[in-house]
Structure to design on (396 residues):
């Protein structure tokens, strides 16, 4: 693609999704099967309204089927699937599948076009995902794109019979180890994804979508209380915290604390325990729910203002404002004997803003720590929520 956007003062090129590749390959395969012509390129209109002109590769033809591929182009997005080939094999159907078969496509009228996944396309093994257990991990929008494009070719050539479409990704099983799929219960390959058909470089939405999926999945598996951690520091901390918590309990929400809390409310959680490093969670005390430094920082400002409200001298406040890390600022507070007081004030504000975000619709606990100083503060419901989270594991 030669379309661009500007982000963080950089010119970045758009790409197209695995779903667009699958749909284009399926369209070309159906075309070659019904016309007995060779197709070198196909045009594909994406849900975003951008028309793609895609090259068709590796075409193999038999009397009953055609298999071909489209190469994924992720643009300037750091995508592990960039450059891989997505294959579609379209064949004349030899039998009728029933609604209990996981490859049954409820969006296909009379089940005329049946879509399934082959080698390298993951299989859903846990409830709570967009596709049911047992189905190929081909999401709803890509399924519809595949169906509509194959159907378009059937109408063009006057074909009224049934067709089977199988999507495969030879490199998918190896690539899946670099994705969230194993954690989400998608086994054997990667997912065929994309709600717009277009990859927006450095987009936050794909990560937010993954967080939402994991939250929904944990709730569908029977959990009612969720454990959220922003990153690896939180995961490492859980290994030593106790209360029966473990890494498998946690949803890693990155900087998107607000969006994770929104999803917890939306999908019906009863409570959330948020555990994170002070460098991230101190921002919550200022109502900052996206903790990436591009959105806001204010770490030193928040630590310093609460020290000031406790009467810290100007020289100490100046020293704190010049600190680079929260641990440096905490060292200043410790020397002045102000750590406990400042942290009590910060925990109160964190709890206030988190409750504001969820409109008091969840039981909430916040625990923050430092790798240098250990646990720094926690709200009153933390021990209770930790026990509830650990206790529900055996009920999943």
């Amino acid at each position: 693609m030669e379309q661009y956007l500007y982000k963080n003062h950089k010119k970045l090129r758009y790409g197209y999704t695995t779903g667009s590749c699958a749909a284009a390959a399926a369209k070309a395969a159906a075309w070659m099967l019904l016309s007995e012509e060779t197709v070198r390129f196909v045009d594909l209109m994406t849900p975003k309204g951008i028309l793609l002109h895609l090259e068709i590769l590796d075409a193999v033809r038999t009397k009953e089927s055609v298999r071909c591929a489209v190469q994924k182009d992720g643009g300037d997005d750091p995508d592990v699937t960039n450059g891989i080939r997505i294959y579609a094999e379209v064949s004349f159907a030899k039998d009728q599948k029933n609604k209990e078969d996981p490859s049954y496509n409820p969006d296909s009228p009379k089940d005329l076009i049946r879509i399934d996944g082959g080698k390298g396309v993951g299989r859903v093994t846990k409830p709570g995902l967009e596709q049911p257990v047992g189905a190929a991990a081909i999401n709803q929008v890509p399924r519809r794109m595949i169906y509509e494009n194959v159907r378009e070719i059937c109408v063009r050539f006057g074909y009224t019979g049934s067709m089977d479409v199988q999507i495969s990704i030879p490199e998918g099983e190896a690539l899946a180890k670099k994705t969230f799929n194993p954690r989400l219960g998608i086994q054997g390959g990667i997912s065929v994804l994309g709600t717009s058909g277009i990859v927006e470089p450095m987009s936050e939405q794909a990560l937010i979508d993954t967080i939402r999926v994991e939250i929904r999945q944990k709730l569908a598996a029977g959990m009612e209380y969720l454990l959220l951690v922003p990153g690896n520091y939180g995961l490492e901390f859980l290994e030593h915290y106790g209360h029966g918590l473990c890494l498998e309990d946690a949803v890693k929400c990155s900087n998107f604390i607000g969006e994770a809390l929104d999803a917890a409310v939306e999908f019906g959680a009863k409570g959330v325990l948020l555990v994170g490093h002070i460098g991230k969670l101190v921002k919550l005390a200022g109502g900052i729910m996206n903790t990436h430094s591009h959105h806001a920082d204010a770490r030193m400002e928040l630590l310093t203002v609460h020290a000031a409200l406790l009467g810290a001298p100007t020289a100490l406040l100046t020293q704190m404002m010049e600190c680079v890390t929260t641990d440096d600022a905490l060292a200043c507070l410790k020397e002045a004997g102000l750590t406990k007081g400042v942290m009590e004030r910060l925990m109160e504000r964190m709890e206030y803003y988190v409750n504001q975000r969820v409109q008091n619709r969840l039981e909430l606990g916040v625990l923050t720590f430092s790798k240098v100083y250990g646990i720094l503060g926690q709200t009153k419901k933390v021990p209770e929520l930790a026990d509830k989270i650990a206790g529900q594991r055996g009920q999943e």
Observations:
- The chain has two domains: 4-199, 205-395.
